[in-house]
Amino acid sequence: MGSMVVIATTAVPDRVRGALSRWMTEPKAGLYVGTMNARVRRELWSAVSDSVGEGAAVCLHTADNEQGYVVLTAGERRRRVLDFDGLQLIQMMAPVEKKDAEWLPEAPEPPVEGWGEGDPGSESGSAPVLEETPFDDLPLEDPDPDRW
């Protein structure tokens, strides 16, 4: 007897979507639901996970465990499945920023003596004024106006 299987895809090639639509229904774009036996599920998931490319896919199916289901993933995702004493938990990973930040100046060091007159406990209550800022050396105009 078959069990319920749910597969969610993101940015996968059309051939993957076509293969999934042969075995499952697609109630919403990228979301596939179906009932199949374990052998068909393993073969289908193997084909999907081998060909996701730059995309990602998640498969959930019923299982005889504490949670009653298993989560399988393929491709790069911010969410990772961790096994914690037999329970599958989801860990959120920090996004990786791929920015070229060479033009940014280094942050100034904090004053060694503290905030002085700007100390919240002082009567003046004003923040300290830095003589120089790290932005003084930056040009006022964009050196490459065509990049935007």
Automatic annotation (TrEMBL):
<dbReference type="InterPro" id="IPR010152">
    <property type="entry name" value="CRISPR-assoc_prot_Cas2_sub"/>
</dbReference>
<feature type="compositionally biased region" description="Acidic residues">
    <location>
        <begin position="133"/>
        <end position="148"/>
    </location>
</feature>
<protein>
    <submittedName>
        <fullName>Type I-E CRISPR-associated endoribonuclease Cas2e</fullName>
    </submittedName>
</protein>
<dbReference type="Pfam" id="PF09707">
    <property type="entry name" value="Cas_Cas2CT1978"/>
</dbReference>
<feature type="region of interest" description="Disordered">
    <location>
        <begin position="100"/>
        <end position="148"/>
    </location>
</feature>
